[in-house]
């Protein structure tokens, strides 16, 4: 069976990933994330307000190996690229090897 | 020249600029950035009369009553977007309905004339962006005299 972490995710994260500090209920972990902050707008009547939808990808196997369970994701703090964010929600991205070997996309918000 | 419609809309921009904490008070701007929030935008409203059913011999240049329905959007981004919007709404309604210049000199409500100012209602929007985004569209009705001789 092809190991997609070895041939796909690991090389991609080695190239595009940046170091991040994840502060969760079990402590603080150093992980690698890919910044996925996107432009975002919201329309109210005729008014369009432009902002960003901050997000980051991480590898589930890396998080699991550090003892970060899925139940720890939401509410944790994620610091990378000079900013500190709070994880408000997350989306699991499956992989050919199953969701436990895939990615998670953290949906972030400005940290209070 | 007296253009009540324009005077009402211009006055509304002045009024929303006095709402505490408003950073941007503008008219008909449809494109805002998060750095401009909290914002209050006045949108020119549709205007209508009851003259469609008037088949009398009244000369066309006689004064008539018109109603205008401008919309005011207030928007904010913060962890407390909901309560922030509630506070901005309260200040907006109060300031529009109590404004002396609007009531006495422009629309001429009550003892000053047969104009009227009404708050019709509002709709809300929320969504996630950098932080929680909240917005509110409030509609008001202004009834006033359109005198072609004043235009």
Written account of the structure:
The complex is a heterodimer of chains A (112) and B (151). Chain A contains three helices and eight strands, in the order αβββββααβββ. Chain A is of the alpha+beta class. Chain A has a single domain, classed as Thrombin, subunit H (Beta Barrel), CATH 2.40.10. In chain A, the strands form two sheets. In chain A, strands 1-2-5-8-7-6 form a six-stranded antiparallel beta barrel. Chain A has a two-stranded antiparallel ribbon with strand order 3-4. The longest helix of chain A is centred in the first third of the chain and has 13 residues, at 4-16. With 151 residues, chain B is α+β, with helices and mostly antiparallel strands. Chain B has a single domain, classed as 2-Layer Sandwich (Alpha-Beta Plaits), CATH 3.30.70.1700. Chain B is built from three helices and six strands; from the N terminus they run αββββααββ. In chain B, strands 1-3-4-6-5 form a five-stranded mixed sheet. In chain B, 30% of the residues are buried. Classes of the chains: A alpha+beta (112), B alpha+beta (151). The interface between A and B is medium-sized, with 18 and 27 residues. β4 of chain A pairs parallel with β2 of chain B.
CATH topology of chain A: Thrombin, subunit H
**Distance between the first and last residues' Cα of chain B:** 5 Å
Low-confidence regions of chain A: none
Mean pLDDT of chain A: 95
Chains forming the largest contact:
A-B, 18 and 27 residues
Features:
heterodimer; A: 112 residues; alpha+beta; Thrombin, subunit H; 6-stranded antiparallel beta barrel; 52% strand; globular; B: 151 residues; Alpha-Beta Plaits; 3 helices; 6 strands
